[in-house]
Amino acid sequence: KRSSTDTKTTKTTMTSCIWAALALAAMQSSPSHAFVPATSEATVGGIRSIRSIRSTTANTPVGVALRSSSSEDDPLFYVRNSYIETSRQYRRTRFQHDDWLLHRSPDRFFKNLRTSVFSGIYRGIAKEVATVTGIAVFIWAWNLFLGEGYTGLDGLHHEPIAHLPLLTLPLTPFTLASPSLGLLLVFRTNASYGRWDEARKAWGLTINNSRNIARMGAAWSSKSIEPSDDIRRQKLEHLAKCIWAFPRSLARHMESPFISEADYVADLRENLDPAHADALVASAHRPNRALFDLANAVNDLPMHALRRNEIDKSIVVLGDQLGGSERLFSSPVPLFYTKHTARYLTAWITFLPFALYDPFASTFNHAAMIPCATVLSIFLFGIEELAIQLEEPFSILPMLGYSSTIGTNAMEIINWHFKMNEEQKS
């Protein structure tokens, strides 16, 4: 005979498990507008520097268009403004010395555990985890109340409401399938990380060759060919601005047409001459136009033609990095591989709770199968989510920061040229 106390206890256990699953789903519904960045602006050497910083406020900075204006203009408005997309801007990491100290701190393990509930990766897979948890709760409740009965707190066995077949599967198929699933996930993650690494190296070469262009242009500008300091300064400053315009246009080229256009136009009009800025804005392929302007700026420098040819070699490298970035952006990991891996993982983890019921027979009413299914789904879906987030690397690279660094360095190198001339005169 089933006691009322045992019935209440079992109902309370079921309710707690269901609320745990709903809590995971609720994480996905957190308002994304709480993750709007503030901007810190500084003008260094005539080039405006924009640095994104974390902000927990919901105030959008004036003049910053990070999101689409309306769902009428953008068919993917709601996807673009979901948490998983808006949070990508906070993965644009640039480490300094203090960041490395914190990164290898001995407290990092406990800190990572404490911040698990705030993880963007986990919040991105909350629906999938909630689904697997709900399946586990359903199987657990079915088998206890409609299958074989349950054990009360008094240690007595209570008969089920109806003697229906148990929802169980043998664990052996999942054990046999685990190595192949692991190989698929490893290759998927490695391929995505390789794409991120290649994109970062492309930007590294862009930074290096931009500095080379500024250095050679400043060092080789000849006073004997152009005696006027004002004209040389005008040409070299124009060169520095053209150097900055290429990475800034490349960063815009890699972004969605529905976001950040206002920022791009404002940056060009603030840092470039009006005619130069208008020509870039009106161009169909802005990085190509920026390279064209850069080549003309180099060709206008007062130096020997052989030296201009040497500088042009660095411009060719910039063109190569532009083509490499476009190749990465337009060619994802083959979709049939991505879809097969996702289907394999989804089927494996969805049916896994059926095979976890019997192995946890030693726990109280098999209850440990529920948190086990939840944790496994978090880790496995998390691996696949990592690969998805890394596959398109440009929206998680601090491209605006790189552009500002390039512009600042270029203008600083140009200023060294005239400072050295003044020292020689004195």
Task: Write up this protein.
The protein is mainly alpha-helical. Helix content is 66%, strand content 4%. The chain has 16 helices and 4 strands. It has helices at residues 4-28, 77-80, 83-86, 97-103, 108-114, 120-124, 126-148, 172-220, 229-253, 261-271, 274-282, 286-299, 305-330, 335-356, 369-391, 399-425, and strands spanning 38-44, 47-53, 150-151, 157-158. The strands form 2 sheets. It has a two-stranded antiparallel ribbon with strand order 1-2. It has a two-stranded antiparallel sheet with strand order 3-4. Helix 7 (126-148) packs antiparallel against helix 15, helix 8 runs antiparallel to helix 9 and helix 10 packs antiparallel against helix 11. The longest helix is centred in the middle third of the chain and has 49 residues, at 172-220. Residues 1-69 have low confidence and may be disordered.
Name the descriptors.
426 residues, mainly alpha, two-stranded antiparallel ribbon, 4 strands
In DSSP terms (H or I, runs of 4 or more residues), the helix count works out at 16
DSSP strand tally: 4
Percentage of residues in DSSP E strands = under 5%
Instruction: Give the SSE order as H and E letters.
Output: HEEHHHHHHEEHHHHHHHHH
The first-to-last residue Cα distance is 106 Å
Shape call:
elongated
Broad structural category: mainly alpha
Q: Please describe the biggest sheet, giving its number of strands, its sense, and whether it closes into a barrel.
A: 2 strands, antiparallel
